[in-house]
Amino acid sequence: MKIGIPKEISNSENRVGMTPAGVLELTKLGHHVFVQSGAGENSGFDDEDYYVSGAKILPTIDRVYEQSEMIVKVKEPVEQEYDMIREDQIIFTFFHFASNKKLTEAMMKSKAVCIAYETVEEDDGSLPLLIPMSEVAGRMAIQQGAKYLEKPVKGKGLLLGGVPGVPPGKVLVLGAGTVGIQAAKMAAGLGAQVTILDVNMNKLRHVNDIMPSHVVTEFSNEYNIRKHIKTSDLVIGGILIAGARSPKLITRDMLKEMQPGAVIVDVAVDQGGCFETTRPTTHEEPAYIIDDIVHYCVSNMPGAVPHTSTVALTNVTLPYVLKLAENGWEKACRDDNALARGINIVNGKVVCEPILEAFGWKEAMA
Question: Which Enzyme Commission number(s) are listed (predicted)?
């Protein structure tokens, strides 16, 4: 199969769809890999690294799309790429369609086969391609939250871990999934007082088993959220419903109950965010303030640490890329239930139910 690795052109996106190590595994099997010149530079991989791994280096993004039967990316295609995508071409990347109607309609129009990393789901409900980026984002959420608590960036002027004689900050984590656990681990390591809320008691039990005593759990409901935001210095939003929009757990009116200078970090921004006041930001302009509350809502947080993120992502995507390359998408998806769940759009038709529900299309297509 002919596989293309274009340079990511989303704002401040420094990751690349595959490492040279991944390219080598494909070329050893006789597949042709086309890498856009400079695609891996920001992740620490130059053209020579890809060339010695067997890739052909192409000068422009349109050449990569033109030559390839399958495109492997990190972020969803941007408007500049829409017309490059053609019928029956496999696009394997993060899409997050439920929060982007324009992208959804463009991919329907292209009649490409859109397989989304975020909905590749094992029978046990785990999301193998989302987990490593959630691990990165969960850890980064605390790093960034701690930074934005500083006064020069309009935070309340608080050191998250405290010092002897001064109590540490309080962190509220919404969601006890991968993001929440990684965020809690980092916050606890800094010495903060951490509370995790979730509606899944099994997840809360797991948190209790693995976390130190200054990480406590409570059942998630509006009453408990309102109770905790009054004293929380940093709130992390880590709610994920696979393929669907995130629920709005903190509304605009709740911000008035928070302390001025408190920080909220919405890791769920790609799926619409779990705060009503969330809007996507970039690494160039990462934060904004509403009602004296600092919002950090960068939609590609792992893009700030591209070497770590690219290697972590290729580690989990490569086995699926190999299946698609060796067998074609139809057989690969018949043989692998997890990969089959990743199919979001085929030949102009949305086949992922949460996307239909997000745009009110489910009834129309019934």
Answer: 1.4.1.1
